[in-house]
């Protein structure tokens, strides 16, 4: 596609591609099979100044564009979706601080999260409240100089590894108007109660966390009390770019393998690529990926130019994640029985693709976000008539 990339965006993408080929792709199978956390890969990304792309330079970040960020996530996911997840979850921990933090909070927390010294996480989901985050139950009770957190969060990426996490909890009335956001350091008493075993992205860590009278000083509350839900919704707008980029990367990775295989594999005395049916399959895969990438990059540019992007981010997340499901499935099919075996990696990509349809709001939830925006526009137009 013909988007104009800046010199910096092209340069950083080249650096990331080299890092991926040298340090990330060679370890992707091992991470999946051993369910080992990609600390060495994260260190390399940190050493190359990539852990704080969206963080302003004055807080130790790279101050890059959202398009650059999406390209970096995509390149990593093309080789290893689990490393991409661990990587972008660190950014997800930074986002609420960027959106609602005071200068003091930014000065204290963003530099170590942007240079890889501290790993970040975002804790929203609870046992009884996933999609319906507005009714979360984890409670932050006010005490004289802060809050005491009690409750449980589940499925938290980096949950057992992160040094610092942004936790959303109830401070007031039921529903969206009673939620606040807090910066919580894990060393202050957050207990890992369980580490999940998963279908895909197995090199990432997904943990349940227990908060039992965890004290959080008032200075670590993000934004006004009870205003956390709006910070969360704005955070999700950007996290959806990460997932969409991860989905595009996974799909591209699977396509690359399928193309290479079909150019070599012979059946009926010909390369299987030469069968028109196979060409149709590969062409549809490529068109699907290219459409997803166009939507993703266009949405990233909307963010970079300060335009509204809530609906576009939901559409990008919905389209790219469903597309990654279709494309990885077709990649396995293109390799036949070998596609089902572990050695070619496409079965891993098919497993990894599934999660992109679930986290950061399931595909159903993206459709609700889109429909709400559509209704806002229609009702706004009717109101103006
Ligand atoms: C590997 C992994 C990593 C994760 N990382 C994080 C993380 O870092 N931080 C975090 O906070 N959470 C994280 N999550 C949680 C994730 O965001 C939730 O699983 C997701 O939002 C769905 O919530 P749920 O699992 O409770 O499903 P539910 O909300 O119970 O949904 C179950 C089904 O019902 C459908 N559904 C629900 N409501 C509606 C509706 N209104 N209309 C139509 N259909 C509906 C859903 O689409 C889904 O199909 C992670 C999850 C996984 C699996």
UniProtKB/TrEMBL annotation:
Acyl-CoA dehydrogenase/oxidase C-terminal domain ranges (all copies): 227-375
Identification of the protein by name: Acyl-CoA dehydrogenase
Keyword Transmembrane: no
Domain of life, source organism: Bacteria
Statement: the UniProt record of this protein carries the keyword Flavoprotein: yes
Database matches in InterPro entries: Acyl-CoA_DH_CS, Acyl-CoA_Oxase/DH_mid-dom, Acyl-CoA_Oxase/DH_mid-dom_sf, AcylCo_DH-like_C, AcylCo_DH/oxidase_C, AcylCoA_DH/ox_N, AcylCoA_DH/ox_N_sf, AcylCoA_DH/oxidase_NM_dom_sf
Alphabetized Pfam families for the sequence: Acyl-CoA_dh_1 (PF00441), Acyl-CoA_dh_M (PF02770), Acyl-CoA_dh_N (PF02771)
UniProt keyword list: FAD, Flavoprotein, Oxidoreductase
GO-annotated molecular function: acyl-CoA dehydrogenase activity; flavin adenine dinucleotide binding
Known cofactor(s): FAD
Sequence similarity: Belongs to the acyl-CoA dehydrogenase family.
Family annotation (SUPFAM superfamilies): Acyl-CoA dehydrogenase C-terminal domain-like, Acyl-CoA dehydrogenase NM domain-like
Domain annotation Acyl-CoA oxidase/dehydrogenase middle: ranges: 121-214
Domain Acyl-CoA dehydrogenase/oxidase N-terminal, first and last residues per copy: 6-117
Coiled coil: none
């Amino acid at each position: 596609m013909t988007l104009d990339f800046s010199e910096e965006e092209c340069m950083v993408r080249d650096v990331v591609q080299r890092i991926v080929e040298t340090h990330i792709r060679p370890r992707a199978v091992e991470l999946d099979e051993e369910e080992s956390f990609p600390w060495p890969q994260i260190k390399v990304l940190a050493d190359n100044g990539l852990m704080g792309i969206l963080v302003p330079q004055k807080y130790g970040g790279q101050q890059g564009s959202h398009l650059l960020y999406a390209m970096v996530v995509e390149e990593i996911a093309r080789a290893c979706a689990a490393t991409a997840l661990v990587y972008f979850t660190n950014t997800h921990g930074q986002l609420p601080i960027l959106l609602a933090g005071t200068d003091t909070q930014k000065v204290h927390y963003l530099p170590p999260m942007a240079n890889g010294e501290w790993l970040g996480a975002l804790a929203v989901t609870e046992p009884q409240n996933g999609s319906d985050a507005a009714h979360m139950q984890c409670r932050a009770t006010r005490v004289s100089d802060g809050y005491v957190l009690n409750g449980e969060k589940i499925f938290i990426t980096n949950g057992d590894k992160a040094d610092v996490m942004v936790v959303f909890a109830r401070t007031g009335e039921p529903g969206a108007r009673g939620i606040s956001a807090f910066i919580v350091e894990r060393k202050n008493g957050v207990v890992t109660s369980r580490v999940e075993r998963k279908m895909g992205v197995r090199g990432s860590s997904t943990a349940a966390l227990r908060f039992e009278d965890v004290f959080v000083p008032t200075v670590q509350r993000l934004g006004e009390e009870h205003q956390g839900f709006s910070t969360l919704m704005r955070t999700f707008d950007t996290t959806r770019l990460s997932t969409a980029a991860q989905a595009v990367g996974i799909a591209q990775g699977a396509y690359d393998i399928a193309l290479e295989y079909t150019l070599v594999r012979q059946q009926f005395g010909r390369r299987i690529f030469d069968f028109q049916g196979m060409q149709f399959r590969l062409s549809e895969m490529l068109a699907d990926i290219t459409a997803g990438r166009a939507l993703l990059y266009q949405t990233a540019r909307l963010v970079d130019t300060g335009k509204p992007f809530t609906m576009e981010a939901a559409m990008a997340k919905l389209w790219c994640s469903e597309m990654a499901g279709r494309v990885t499935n077709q990649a396995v099919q293109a390799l036949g029985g070998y596609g089902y075996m572990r050695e070619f990696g496409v079965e891993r990509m098919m497993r990894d693709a599934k999660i992109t349809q679930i986290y950061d709001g399931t595909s159903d939830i993206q459709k609700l976000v889109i429909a709400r925006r559509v209704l806002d526009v229609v009702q706004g137009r009717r109101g103006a008539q």
